[in-house]
Automatic annotation (TrEMBL):
Coiled coil: none annotated. InterPro entries: Glyco_trans_2-like, Glycosyltransferase_2, Nucleotide-diphossugar_trans. Pfam families: Glycos_transf_2 (PF00535). It comes from the Bacteria. This is Glycosyltransferase family 2 protein. It comes from Flavobacterium cheonhonense. Residues 9-171 form the Glycosyltransferase 2-like domain.
């Protein structure tokens, strides 16, 4: 705990058997109280390794729900067991757990209610091996969203995020997609609700066993980002409020 805040790390897992141990062993358990792993119907040994590591809360999906569906199970369980600070960490070891301290303290000290690890601040993305086309797309989509949403984030597309309990309770994330666009919808909801987001520089690693979406799914995601940005803009100027922005 920090300042009597219960800290929970959630691991949305899919075929993470080769990287789960490395990720788990870097989690700072001097401040982290609980770990939740949600296995999205993996076809490898993810669940077995999670049990060997002693992870107490393991949820197994009987069918693959997708990245967004996985996170919904993560956050609902974290709220159920009393989490005050909930940190979403990919178990593919692409993001370092060593930033959990910094992310947690910003929320525990009530500086910000949401903290994300940005690969774009500094030179973490390209240095870590992010494909050039993904980097360019990231920069374009972020600029587009910043203009339509009147914000100044360095990126909207990181998968390393920490939330206060209040954010998860006040935003109906269960309305969001079960696909990869979930993350972007959630950020749009956060800003729409009036919460602020802090960013910290995050190194990242791209390697064979790290999860990544292919070009066609990246294209689908990019079009989804544009749609969400336009929906946000229309909602804020009072023309049309999309379902995800309705209380």
């Amino acid at each position: 705990m920090i300042n009597q805040k219960k800290i929970i790390v959630v691991l949305p897992a899919y075929n993470a058997g080769k990287t789960l141990s490395d990720t788990y062993n870097e989690i700072p358990f001097e401040i982290v109280d609980e770990v939740i792993l949600v296995d999205d119907n993996s076809n490898d040994n993810t669940k077995e390794i999670a049990k060997q590591l002693g992870i107490k809360h393991i949820i197994s999906h009987e069918k693959n729900l997708g990245y967004g569906g996985n996170q919904k199970s993560c956050y609902n369980k974290a709220l159920e067991i009393g989490g005050d600070i909930i940190i979403m960490l990919h178990p593919d070891y692409q993001y370092t757990p060593k930033l959990i301290h910094s992310m947690s303290y910003l929320i525990a000290n009530e500086v910000y209610p949401v903290v994300i690890g940005s690969r774009i601040l500094g030179k973490g993305a390209l240095k870590g091996g992010m494909p050039l086309y993904k980097y360019v797309a990231n920069r374009f989509l972020t600029l587009f969203q910043n203009i339509l949403m009147n914000q100044k984030l360095s990126e909207y597309h990181t998968g390393y995020r920490a939330y206060s309990r209040a954010v998860l309770e006040q935003i109906d994330f269960n309305k969001n997609s079960n696909d990869f666009i979930f993350d972007n919808q959630f950020i749009a909801q956060i800003f729409h609700k009036g919460f602020e987001i802090a960013e910290i520089t995050c190194p990242t690693k791209y390697f064979e066993d790290a999860s990544s979406i292919n070009f066609s799914r990246s294209l689908k995601y990019g079009l989804g980002v544009i749609k969400i940005s336009i929906q946000y803009f229309l909602s804020k100027i009072g023309i049309h409020k999309a379902t995800i922005f309705k209380s």
